[in-house]
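Hi there. Long-time user, first ticket. I'm pasting a complex I've been working with (about 460 residues overall). I'd like to know whether the download I got is complete or cut off, because the file seemed smaller than I expected. Thanks.
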Amino acid sequence: MAQEYHNNCSLCGRNSEVFKYMDKDELKKIDSHRVSIRYKPGEIIFKQGTPCYNFICITQGLVKLYIEHQRNRNLIIGLMRPVNYIYEPGFFVDKHHHFTALAAEETTACLIDINVMKELFFSNQAFSYDFIQRISRQALGLFDRISSCTHKHVFGKVADTLLYLHPKIYPENPFYLSLCRQDLADLSGITKESVIRVLKKFQEEGIISINGDQIEIFDRERLEVISDKG
Amino acid sequence: MAQEYHNNCSLCGRNSEVFKYMDKDELKKIDSHRVSIRYKPGEIIFKQGTPCYNFICITQGLVKLYIEHQRNRNLIIGLMRPVNYIYEPGFFVDKHHHFTALAAEETTACLIDINVMKELFFSNQAFSYDFIQRISRQALGLFDRISSCTHKHVFGKVADTLLYLHPKIYPENPFYLSLCRQDLADLSGITKESVIRVLKKFQEEGIISINGDQIEIFDRERLEVISDKG
DNA sequence: CGCGAGCTTGACGTTGTTCAACTAGAGTGG
DNA sequence: CCACTCTAGTTGAACAACGTCAAGCTCGCG
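Hi, the file is complete. Here it is re-exported in full:
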């Protein structure tokens, strides 16, 4: 977790949509209340149940957000690529984390003092409205997720996961998967054995191909049909 | 769907937390861009897929929010009692409804022009921040829901539903259920037959009692244990 | 009294989990 | 360089959970 003095927010802001509604003074303020941290794969950025002091913005890498469940069954609620901030609803409710964030690849993140962000919510309406739009998009994603896990069978669930992974998380095709089978299972809400069986089936049917960690999607439409049918 | 000229927003605001951050002028503005509508049980307030023109605030009754799914299996994502507004994430994303709202009991609702609300998000930061807090609470509820439907068995799911219904939706105990078994099933994400079997089991074990439409919860702690264990 | 909608019950079949065994590959130490 | 170990991935068989289906029941209403 080496600390790293990374550009500055004005520069970083240029590369992302995230802070587009901030003016120079605001970015300067954020800049003076932030640290940039580098995480190694497998390191926890914050843990479910702990109080939240920082607003976290991913600037490099891949982050896994998951709900820890008893009996070591986790539930991955999302993956996150830069540049984006992690929306933790708990910040606005009880100031505690309701899920764990873990670096799935080599990751850098900016930690910004939460009170500074709170001030900005009050002073900058455009940012605040943009924030509502972003979290609304996430909420719609959660709806799909709930639909998926209540009504769909394993094939539909794995199809959903694949459609989520590409292009959103892995833009290339084929892509190198940095997640293990158990992660795919936690993302799909099923067991790793089921994931394996479904992937094998998909491969047999020519929908995808798997070579080690490399996955290629041949027939996206077919996956969409499977996703719809459940 | 008789139109009803109901008090005014300043008065209504007194009874609710919803508009506590509005000043008189703002309430007046809302007042002049709203209609109050009365819905009979079973009537649709808005339907999934339609564009959204109004911000909707429930002032009386009970509203069922559900995602329509193919094969007539619905998924109830929440129930709503007055006084509260319906947060439709689609409003901030694509201006379409992503679920259907239906009056489950005799219901009145205020429909407020969505552009007026949007202006208020920009002009009134306290309201806007309060809004973010409210929708964050809902997001946490969705997390629980996803956990529930992926990891829990029927007993845990029905326990969750009962714990949700009382006291949040039906404050009294015992309470008269205005929902049918299919609704309980759609809320729990299982079939109505399973709901019936689980309720019977709960009754046999003395956790609840059922008399027609009247349900009494005797042992809330036991339900919480069942909910936790899955 | 008869009808129909919603509720209840039981039998059955499917699905997916669980469990255990096996494989492949990477890392370690002699 | 080879055996050893450890982890992740894979496979198959047995089992449990739940959904499906069909039949019967209850109660309100005409």
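A couple of notes from our side: Residues 1-5 of chain A have pLDDT under 50 and may be disordered. The domain at 2-148 of chain A is CATH 2.60.120.10 (Jelly Rolls).
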